[in-house]
Queue: 3 jobs
Job 1
Amino acid sequence: MLEPISVSLASLNLVTLAPMLVAVAGGLILLIIDLIKGDLHKSLYVMLTILILFVDFGSVMGLNVNERGFFDVMLIDGIAIISQLLILAASMLFIPLALTSKRFHEYSYPEFFALFLFMIAGFQFMVASDNLILIFVGIETASLSLYTLIALHNRYNSYEAAVKYFTMGALAAGFYAMGSAVIYALTGSVELYQIAEVLQSRISESSVMLAVLGGSVLLLGAFAFKLSLFPFHTWTPDVYEGASAPLAGYMSIVPKVAALVVAMRIFGLYIDLGVEWVRIAILVLSVLTMTLANMMALVQDDVKRMLAYSSISHVGFVMAAIALDTTKGNTGVFLYYALYMFTNLGAFAMLWISRHKNRVFHKRFDHPYEKFSGLIKIMPMGAVVMALFMLSLAGVPPFSVFWGKIYIMSAAVDAGYVWLAVVMGLNSAIAAYYYLKLVVYMFLKEPEGNDDTIYYNTSKPLMSMIGIAVVATVGSVFFMQPLISYIFYMVSASGY
């Protein structure tokens, strides 16, 4: 007779699960409140969501570095902590925007906030595990919630965007599952640290190397879809166009951070094992992504689509840092997104400043360049703020994104990839053209259309969020050194 296996509560180390449990429990509490008392004002749900995010943030800050928990599937290293802090900080910036306008009805649904918290829990599972199955659970939890959040915008192109995103996500999930199956067949494990140990002893076998390459191609395809790398990027502009402007800005940051962390863990393992093919493939994809996305952004007539292609280019820029597989390169990934987060969320939020009920400037687009013509005369402060965000995204010193770009370029030079740093510099120069194009429209052209057709959203939550983004964008130079030191310490503590 088999003896029952006893598992002590202490050995499970449930503290490592605390941040995810806070987000899941918070989402369930919001749904229960709605069941008990319906038709409550959305401000209650916004405040509760912010409170839950603060508790979640505190629980992450309380975690110890390099701990495992829950049958060793949870991994709390420096990268898991810093990426969760980034995800929660971006979420706390985004969610108050639900108070800004009565015109977007999705924010009046309690389900919106519950889904939002479930999505965050999914992202946290992705970054706080090196178990391929739990990563997959996190990806699907976050993705399914995000598809629904996009569709809740309730416009015809929102449904189209949600279906496109779902289709691409399903394809990526299939690639990921097949790639993970290949790895499991080779090693008999789904834990990355055990996979590394097994492959280390068998990598010299030609049949094993062939299977490793097959698995890496499938996984690279999966993350190319998730990160919108060339040639799997075509869904991104349409999805961003269909989502509300702030949600599109959020999508350009948080899902990318989570996917980059998983890519860092998986492909870093391959590169450490000496599979140079993976490094070369990532570098090729990165260069193609940043270059072609910049080319496409040059010819866009809509500012939102331009920012969508811009975000693809930024992902290509950052993905190159993962191929370096150095502590400085991985530090650059988190530094870049910590700075880019404020600027890009602010830029997308600025699209919400002026909205028109009907498309008075363009038959198809909500945010054509013409809508911003002469903004300096209509809304001077709005024009100056948007110009600051554009200059920062272009990498103009001393604004925030410049420091992220220069740090990753210096990491490439230190790793011996001078040509990569040159390509990055050239791409930044190309990108400056389409960012400055918007500045020209705002400052040097006459206003178009009738002001009566435009709704100006100057609510306090929106102004506050944009104000925080401006302070972070302009004042980043003053806190750069402690930020780099903290990120470098956390990444080094993870052994990356």
Note: Residues 13-353+362-493 form one domain.
Job 2
Amino acid sequence: MAYVAVKGGEQAIDAAHAWLAEERRGDATLPGLSVAQIKSQMGRAVDRVMAEGSVCDRDLAALAIKQAQGDLIEAAFLLRAYRTTLPRFGYSVPLQTAHMTLRRRISAIFKDLPGGQRLGATTDYSHRLLDFSLLDDARLPDHAPTVQHTAASAPHVTDLLGAEALIELEACAAHPPGDITMTPLGFPTTRDLRLQALARGDEGFLLAMAYSTQRGYGHNHPFVGELRVGDVAVSIIPPELGFSIEIGDITLTECQMVNQFAGSKQAPPQFTRGYGLCFGHADRRAIAAALLDRSLRSAELGEEVQAPAQAAEFVLAHCDNIEATGFVEHLKLPHHVDFQSELELLRSLRATSVASNATDSAS
């Protein structure tokens, strides 16, 4: 049988795009799904797309979700591609998460702590059962509480351990932080770049790698020291002013993980830190990032590196779903010439093998 390359054209591509638009709209007898609805009612999906797309803009993330028909990786791809067209006009000053206007704040290590614990909006304490009442949810239930967010004083829980010198000091960086949105990630890498890569990594991959550390593939015996969700003011220092001004606020999830550490020649037995920070309300992502941050510090802390989650190049080179999508999905594109080359090579090898076997039989 002969194989020939199949030729396509613009007409076929245009038809595919038209069909996609039709499928995206769905049943025309139903109201269209608006960007405002996605933004308001699919908050966790919007948060994930913002994180993995590296853009903190709920409107754009919601638009990307609509355009991608709910494919969150494709939506993140669209958002990150759009980000590359935007000018970079400056950097914010470090965010003060200790001054966060809290929506949620929990600690797994202290029951009573300054500022108190707040469960916030969470499914942690609910049964995972389908709620069929949501089939008709035109309005909020009559008993829905009015939620108020306050900026009560709530110091970080790890500060309490630091006051007793029971946890490692948070080292100050010896250099300005890098920016992986402007410079490709290289190896070996520093913690600031690792944290950036984890903040926008694929949530499923981060979760799987973090889970592996808890199953024994690495030295991770963690406690959630604190998990907080809330709004933080963003400030910049315009060169023409020389002092900081607030330009808005963003919603963040921050996780500070507390890990056991037996000590080394350089450090006494103490707790060590793992840290995760990401856009929006994303408990799972922040916890997984904090677990992996600690795991990737193994060599720095004198621990044996023997598990995948401890290998920075393995974790960071594979956690970016935009990079992964490009490599995996390019296999769908035409490879006719390459395949023809492989086919001819295989035919030649088979012919040589048949000839060789025939010669051996004759002798």
Note: The first strand starts at residue 101 and ends at 106.
Job 3
Amino acid sequence: MGAGHFDVLLPTQEQVAVLAACPDRLASSRVVTVVPEFAALAAVQDKVSAYRTLERLGLPQPPTAVLADADGIRAWDAFPAYVKLPIGTASRGVVRVGDASHARRVADDLEADAAFGHGGVVVQVAVDGPLVMIQSVFDRGRLVASHANLRVREGAGGGASSKESVDLPEVRDHLEVLGSGLGWHGALSMDAILDDGHPRYIDVNPRLVEPGNARRSGVDLVGTLVDLARGDTPPVQSPGVPGVRTHQALLALLGAAQRPRPRRAILEEVMAVVRHDGDYRGSIEELTPLRGDLRTALPSVIAVAVMLVHPPSWRFFASNATTNYALSSDGWQVLLALQGSAPG
């Protein structure tokens, strides 16, 4: 950091767990950053702990159980459901099971992988409704900025290729309960299913997740995070404008490669992007905006060219993106051991 003359270091992915584990080293090196205390992070970092934290604070979730062994999954009888490993990033470690036969196969696989050794696994009943993505920033337990958007369209890997901002006062109330209950400092994101208009929380991430829609809606999450890192006390931001649509064309193109007749689907998606048709009408690109820098089109152009030759290559683009930053279960156990902590 010192040699590079950086002004601030913001963890954008699972690096937050490592940084939170060594506050003294950060301070002695004069690293300017913002991360929660490790105890607060450990309360939501793995899915078992996150479920128990939300349960303790009275925040709504789908019907959920923590199962200690494979027999618990084999006996599960509420379908469809999601089986979730404690540690997993970008939908990794999450399996949707549709019936008892599938549940038994998943149980056998997890048992063979010794997956129950770190507090069990979470099994959660699937709830019908749209997915809402929630981002927030806290100043030592005080909510200073938040935003919510619907996943209008799903892209590769379960990501949101199209989003629309929404105003959900109930979600802000829940964020205040969670942030104050943990004394949270820094960024915090959640996913929820809107069940008859009310959120049921299914995932917690101790970082910002895709803040582009928030910025276009008038909520500057990143700027607020930088202010906190620099020691400022940011004012509470007003909610963003609802109905603002944004998209990530690259995610949509990767998703098109998974459809029947993938080459045709990819070309149709390209034409929709170019013409601003369908989900792209009135929507703004988040990742690769062409205005001011045509080079931002290169990732999508390269991906399209490769996938037109070999459609299954979408897996290469999607999997490499996650592998480069994902925290493994073994890595998380090392951090817990260094802190003398236990999950849950």
Note: The longest helix spans residues 169-182.
